[in-house]
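User: Round two. Same drill as before: sequence, then structure, for each protein.

Assistant: Same drill it is. First protein:
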Amino acid sequence: SIKKDGDEYILNGRKWWSTGAGDARCRLAIFMGKTDESAPKHLQQSMILVPLNADGVRVERLLNVFGFDDAPNGHAEISFEDVRVSKENLLLGEGRGFEIAQGRLGGGRVHHCMRLIGVAERSLELMIERAKTRVAFGKTLAEQGVVKNWIAEARIEIEQARLLVLKTAWMMDTVGNKTARKEIAMIKAVVPQMALKIIDRAIQAHGGAGVSQDFPLANLWIYARSLRLADGPDEVHLESIARMELKK
């Protein structure tokens, strides 16, 4: 919550997955909370800058991701207890927090998907290299039908995802994020799953080595799996897509 008190705001709340808060250079947080619960839903929230050394701010712990600490950035659980911040720290004005959040989510989701396409490409490269050099039962993996299918399907799926991401970015540039919201939801639902499938098959082609520190595939899998949750889980995006389709 964000409550006004004279020339200050008083903040209370708890936030998990505060990415970057574990970095020693991090000095400032952006706090989003409700300033007016009686306002329309999209005007209830505000954003305000909070120094991490302010009284009442406490980094409770750093959260692991699949058992890893994700250093050096870190994802923190932070508590805010009666934290006083100057009204000058408010961003844009009261009730504009949702507007700010929505303004960055579209571009953020596209960037997630662009990076995941790169991850899928790297995983396919590793799978091809492994298939050409690893010999099993007297012939290379590349000579075996199932691995050929994996490679072909990976190329098809990467190109499908890439074209959808390019279309989405083009729409955002030409008609705006609001009109492109269905396409933004579509790429966020499909691209992480595409990348995970290709990474998983690359791991399979590497055998036990695929889950070791000798190859980046295990870390790439963790990264891609986390992005099925970041900026909204798959189910939220699928629900949004379905609603828009049903309104046609």
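Second protein:
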Amino acid sequence: MHDLIYCLSVFTIISTIIPFIRHDYWIFRVFEYPRLQKLFLNVVLVILVFTYSFPIEIWEKTVVILLLLNLIYLSYLIFPYTVFAKKQITSSKNPSGKQNLKILIANVYQDNKQAKDYHKLISECDPDVILLVETNQWWAEQMAAVSVNYPHQITAPLENTYGMLLYSRLPLKGEVNFLVEKDIPSIQATVTLNSGQPVQLFCLHPKPPVPQESTKSTKRDKEILMIAVKAKQSKLPVVV
């Protein structure tokens, strides 16, 4: 039990340190994402250390100190996303106003065949704009009925899990782009609100840096940066 606790503690600490290494290989990027999971594991390990394996040796005390520092750092990273942090975007006081835009975004998981669940979700949420990703031709056909209430569409169904379907009941103009890779689409569009205010939409779903998708994060980072530049240069309100 003692050895397992300290081995997991060292692993948790290393998993936080690795992303500080500026390299685009997947092993250096993948540990950026599970921050909440690492925080949970960190808390459990701290409890176990002080309950079952109180540090006595110098190396044990060093690991525990690093584990506590790791806990503080992970808490700092996650705090802005908790209910205790100040909101960056305040809740709308008039959710049905002409200046508002309601968007539903869903990763359908291409092999999933529960299209009816998404029709139900759309009915329940009643969004102005719908973006579905990981959509192939089968999904495009299953969602065809959406056209009745969402006549404005920009679609790029693909069989590689990177297809995109964009539907809008508000006026929509735009195009499908392949910014970095010829089989990874993104959509740049302008939707016009009921008030007449145009809003710029950037829809993207880049490859994550994991072995089965892409061993390096270079292309993903490039696409995100390209969209960031476009968003900064836009004179319209922007949603990415």
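The beta strands are 103-107, 129-133, 152-156, 164-168, 172-177, 186-192, 198-204, 238-239.

User: Perfect.
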